[in-house]
Amino acid sequence: MPILEVEGLSKYFGGLAALNDVNLSIQEGEIRGIIGPNGAGKTTLFNVISGVYRPSSGQIRYQGKTRIDGLSSSRIAGMGVVRTFQRTALYHHFSVLKNVIVARHLHAKENIFRVISGLAKKTEEKNTEKALEIVEFMGLGHLKEELAENLPHGHQRALGVAIAIACEPKVLLLDEPLTGMTPTEKDRMIDLIRKVHQQGITILMVEHDMRSVMELCGYISVLDFGMLLVEGPPAEIQNNEMVINAYLGTEDILSASTSA
């Protein structure tokens, strides 16, 4: 049974269809790549799945029967479908560890003012212990007391993933996790994504770095003008004429194909 199913999903902004009758079936335990040229509807798809936008039509089913389309972002995240964002949403004046602790408390719907003021000490101790485990797992233990605003870009992106993991996802939506990274940072993030996946977390990933998508994902869905163009394993997608045409033969697709 798929862990996440998108059926006939459409999203209109005025008369413009950002998504048009999209169907996806995500199997538990996979890493699914969502690719497409700029304006294809990738981030809109994530926004609808995660509850940022309500769909104009269609259904999203989670774990078989539960419909999540139209639910609030917080409720969807509480059910286990959690996303990151292109621009990392951090408390920039908090430390690395404090960012993850706050995410733990918010996920549990605790009073954030009690948390920050230190009134909920027993809960704080438990969440601090778990947050520290997550920070260490993400390779940020040596930076746990560093302010988020002082981190290099790659570490900020890793912290964004750590914050998402603090919400205990069963399905993790990664929105361009490699954007703006150096080659070294990309290699490190790819390793981290694999580590997260090995914890039993299903991953959907929107990403423009085609070489990384082909390396990480077992199956890829291609969007174009808000519609699902084609799906398949990386070897098929790399050489699919419709995909190459959608990208206008750009270097990303061609270089990913020739390097595979």
Short overview:
The protein has 2 domains: 1-80 and 173-260, P-loop containing nucleotide triphosphate hydrolases (Rossmann fold, 3-Layer(aba) Sandwich), CATH 3.40.50; 86-168, no CATH class. Helices cover 40% and strands 23% of the residues. It has 11 helices and 10 strands.
If you had to describe this structure to a student in words, what would you say it looks like?
The structure is a single chain. The protein has helices spanning 42-49, 73-79, 96-107, 112-117, 121-137, 153-165, 183-197, 210-216, 234-238, 241-246, 251-259, and strands at 4-13, 16-26, 31-35, 57-62, 66-67, 81-83, 171-175, 202-206, 219-224, 227-232. With 260 residues, it is an alpha/beta fold. The protein folds into 2 domains: 1-80 and 173-260, Rossmann fold, CATH 3.40.50; 86-168, no CATH class. The longest helix is centred in the middle third of the chain and has 17 residues, at 121-137. The radius of gyration is 19 Å and the shape is globular. It starts with a strand and ends with a helix. The model has no long low-confidence stretch (mean pLDDT 88).
Helix content: 40-55%
Q: Quaternary state, please?
A: single chain
Which structural class is indicated by helix and strand composition?
A: alpha/beta
Q: What is the H-and-E element order?
A: EEEHEEHEHHHHEHEHEEHHH
Tell me the number of helical segments per DSSP (H or I, 4 or more residues long).
Answer: 11
Average pLDDT number: 88
Q: What would CATH call the homologous superfamily of the largest domain?
A: P-loop containing nucleotide triphosphate hydrolases
**Any idea of the CATH topology of the largest domain?**
Rossmann fold
User: What summary fits the major beta sheet?
Assistant: 6 strands, mixed
| Name of the CATH first level of the largest domain | Alpha Beta
Strand order of the largest sheet: 6-7-8-3-9-10
Portion of residues in beta strands equals 15-25%
The first-to-last residue Cα distance is: 31 Å
Using the 3D structure, state the CATH architecture of the largest domain: 3-Layer(aba) Sandwich
Which regions are unreliable across 5 or more consecutive residues at pLDDT < 50?
Answer: none
What is the overall silhouette?
Answer: globular
How many independent structural domains? 2
Please give the radius of gyration in angstroms.
19 Å
